[in-house]
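Dear colleague,

Thank you for sharing your sequence with our group. We've completed the structure prediction you requested, and as agreed, I am returning the results in plain text so they can be pasted directly into your records. Please verify that the sequence below matches your submission; if there's any discrepancy, let me know and we will rerun it promptly.
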Amino acid sequence: MADVRFEELVLLKCDFEMWPSREEAATDAGGSEAEAEAVRREDTDGVSQYPTDHLLRWKSTVTREGDELFLYMSAKLDTPQLPFRLLFDVGVRYMTSLEEQTTTEALKPTLVWIAYPFLRELVYNLTARTPVPPYALPPLTRLPDPSLAGDASDDAEQ
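Please find the predicted structure tokens below.
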């Protein structure tokens, strides 16, 4: 059975920037304290009102050296829907027993799928250390390539 195993994820670069809160922006724009208070009342007592859309955008490349695969990913959360901007680069290493004929381009979606829970944890942990509520990336529902997942009967024979 073909096998791809996650080995490690390394944060290579991270850039985080927060925007002013809505009430600060209302006051800074020349608004009165009453306008800032109205904005404060619109907010829902600190409950996160983040969108549930997939806002993470990334570019990635995969290289292979023998039985190791390397995923390099440059990702960003940069949208007015969030009170911050987060840019980061990660490197992910996998071990594999795949045959050389499998192209790295064909492997890329599966490698991203395997790394995604770790990216979710990274984003949540980074944003949890800020004054804004932590942001959790929505779950990724794309399954890995069936040719890499194997067959349950393969496991039973071993």
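Summary note from our side: The CA atoms of residues 24 and 36 lie 7 Å apart.

Kind regards,
the structure core
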